[in-house]
Write a structure and sequence with these properties.
By secondary structure, the chain is an all-alpha fold. The protein is built from ten helices and two strands, in the order E-E-H-H-H-H-H-H-H-H-H-H. A hairpin with a 5-residue loop joins strand 1 and strand 2. GO terms for molecular function: DNA-binding transcription factor activity; transcription cis-regulatory region binding. Keywords: DNA-binding, Transcription, Transcription regulation.
Length: about 220
């Protein structure tokens, strides 16, 4: 049970548990890393953001690399797009039902609009992690491979030319790259309508009448 401390007003103040403090650290680290990148973020700035000393923070996380792993773990937990894909994989395994391919990136667009910081975190770290020495390099390489394998295993409700696993993975990669570019513009430019521009992309990638009944 968390103990109580005395606040400046004399009222008892509940001391945060280790798990609560760790979650607070991860939230603040997510904010700072999204803004400055892993290399630009400092442990001192993160500690200052939640009102504790750096030494106090290091009682909950060993070092900056471990903190990054915690941030990435929270990113996976908070990621609606990954949850959508996982749900599709599970539904396909249980029912054999062909899945709606356009739903993946529509979920990504909604995710970006609902949580821009999570999107910024992904884009900033993904760019930094092109460096093989970056502590998240292997994470992103393995994550991309895992997602592509999941996409290839599902039967999708798509036009005949895309029913081959290579064709659908190629489409997935191409559309993902397009969305990454749009999200970068959206985060960096005023009055950029991400939702509208994604609809333009869908008309290009899912042209009618070929995609009639599949969109």
């Amino acid at each position: 049970m968390a103990s109580a401390a005395i606040s400046g007003t004399g009222a008892p103040r509940r001391r945060k548990s280790g798990d609560e403090r760790r979650q607070e650290i991860v939230r603040e680290a997510t904010k700072v890393i999204a803004e400055r990148g892993f290399y630009g973020a400092s442990l001192q700035e993160i500690a200052d953001g939640i009102g504790i000393t750096q030494a106090g923070m290091l009682r909950h996380v060993k070092n900056k690399n471990e903190l990054l792993l915690l941030v990435l773990g929270q990113f996976e937990s908070d990621n609606p797009t990954q949850a959508c894909l996982n749900s599709m994989v599970e539904d396909y395994r249980e029912t054999g039902r062909a899945q709606c391919f356009p739903a993946i990136y529509r979920t990504s667009v909604r995710q970006a609009l609902d949580n821009p910081r999570l999107t910024q975190l992904y884009l900033v770290l993904r760019a930094e992690a092109m460096d093989s020495a970056h502590p998240a390099h292997d994470y992103f390489a393995k994550r991309g491979l895992k997602v592509r394998e999941s996409v290839a295993k599902i039967t999708w409700n798509v036009p005949e030319p895309y029913r081959d696993s290579k064709a659908i993975v190629d489409l997935y990669l191409t559309m993902g790259s397009a969305l990454d570019g749009l999200q970068m513009r959206w985060l960096g430019e005023d009055d950029f309508d991400l939702e509208w521009h994604w609809k333009v992309c869908e008309d290009f990638f899912y042209p009618l009448p070929e995609w009639e009944g599949y969109r």
